[in-house]
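Issue 218. Parser rejects a valid record. Input:
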Amino acid sequence: MTVILLRHGVSTSNTARTLAGRTPGVELTERGTEQAAAVADRLATLPIEHIASSPLLRCQRTVAPLADKLGLEPDCDERLIEVDYGDWTGRPIAELLTEPLWQVVQRHASGAVFPGGEGLAQMQQRAVGAVRDIERSLSERAGRDVLWLACAHGDVIKSILADALGLHLDGFQRIAVEPASISVVRYTRHGPAVWKFNDTGADLSALAAAAPTSSTPGGEVPGAASADNGNARHRDSP
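Output the parser choked on:
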């Protein structure tokens, strides 16, 4: 079984540099909409048979063009939803940098529990469980390997990749997952294999951005993503 992990495109929270979390109604920017269309063009020729998605709007908007091209109805799965950042939700990233918990998120993610929210270890357990359950169900139904896609959020995808790589959650900040990037994991009877990660196609503009000092909750690469006009640099947020 092979799953394509797609992160949502650039959102209004990304450009505002706030931690969106599960805030309802967070839309894609013009750039994010363009990314969703480009992803659909890239993937529409593949024999994708199932699309699962976080129920949050930015993910729904990201998979819509691809679902239309493939004639599939995305299946909303609550287990793929963004981390519940609790009291951190909606706050500016610059403000969160001063919180003591920030360093825990960076260096000891498995012990990080957001005030009024969930822990990153809890998130990984539900996200990996969702992927394994879906791929098992698809395999049993089809009686063969199936190529499918899951659209989710930065930290969620990073945690799934860390599990597939055999990497402890404390090291998951070493994985970069940019907006509208795709990562690919193939699950076999002998274990998972990561075929791709953080693939954004031919666009290498992120490499010209200033090197980040730490990762932002949500799987961001600070300074790497483009603003709506495609030229300005900024620090992302989920």
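Fixed in the parser; the record now loads. The beta strands are 2-7, 48-53, 75-76, 147-152, 182-188, 191-199.
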